[in-house]
Amino acid sequence: MGGCKSSDQVMMEKQNWPYDFALSEDFQKTEQRGCISGRLLVRDRYIIEDEDLYAASAYIGLALPGEAGSWQRECKGYQFWCQADADGSFYIKNIVTGNYNLYAWVPGFIGDYRFDATLTISSGDDIYLGDLVFEPPRDGPTMWEIGIPDRSAAEFYVPDPNPNYVNRLFINHPDRFRQYGLWERYAELYPDRDLVYTIGESNYATDWFYAQVTRRSDGDTYQPTTWQIRFSLDAVPPNSTYKFRVALASSANAELQVRFNDEARAVPHFTTGLIGRDNAIARHGIRGLYFLFSVDVRGAWLVRGTNTIYLKQPRNQSPFQGVMYDYLRLEGPCVVPAANSSPKAN
Predict the structure, then answer these.
(1) Domain with 129 in it
(2) Are 99 and 163 part of one and the same domain?
């Protein structure tokens, strides 16, 4: 009964906010605030050629003006968010007056959306934006993919904890990642070699470790790790360009170097440089600051038959340096699809 009362109380407080008992002139009452609504659609012509998809359950919000995705790093201004309905419709209310950009991200799709215009919210405004269209990054058809683009590493393999560190609250729990020391299990599972994932054979739920971390060796020293993705191509068109998308759910003082079919190459084909300080690995989290990297892959780097992508995390000063992947995708050479639009449920 206590739990029910608590839940009811939460709902009542949410409905009563913003409260009318605050006397400060700096606290705006409901009638002094504004509202905004609309519908968000997703356009990906490599999924459906002539129709837009509903941005079901999209996270849509207002934050200070900036670049797409800048709301993640913004900590000085107000932010107001909601989750869209099944048809992409959204309604954000009780917005403090001011200038904002409208941002969104959609589960199931990579990238960030930003409405082009700056929105000015005045007292009593009820602004309807109509249909907005998000075109997630896409250059060609999907050759293969690993994971689910939801800004989380929860779908990957999360090992059982060391019995000495078990938190019984999270045994048989959806948040099984909330256990101490899971990063140490990587070295136990891969003591002498690193993870190798084969497209068409491996399963990311069982074969892709939830975080690419360092490997502890003797004493308090740590080794860099290099993961491999192996895949086959029936042909590589001359002068073609593929696209490799890497979405990270978290990074902690890490670097991701990418090499194609040449692990010993002195200079990687791509590197992120040193990124991230969210410490999600050390804090038993499954997501942190989101990063999306898009790598142009020259056809000359690939071969007909078996190919290997080497993902190296070279920073190795501590056990917590590493990345959590959200989603990886290889796109084939661009094929221009048809273009028309009408909304349809996903």
Answers:
(1) 2-134
(2) no
- The mean per-residue pLDDT over the stretch 146-152 comes to 98
Q: Are 198 and 319 members of one domain?
A: yes
Instruction: DSSP letter for 139, please.
Output: S
Structure tokens at 185: 């299990």
DSSP 143-191: EEEEE-SSS--TTSB-PPPPGGG--GGGTT-TTTT-STTGGGHHHHHSS
pLDDT higher than 60, residue 337: no
In a domain, 343, yes or no: no
- Burial (0-12, 13-18, 19+ Cβ within 10 Å), 4: exposed
Whole-model pTM above 0.90?
yes
* pLDDT given at position 341: 46
Report the number of distinct structural domains present in the chain: 2
Domain C-terminal end among 118, 134, 150: 134
Q: Among candidates 309, 158, 319, which has minimal Cα distance to 223?
A: 319
**CA nearest 327: which of 183, 186, 174, 137?**
137
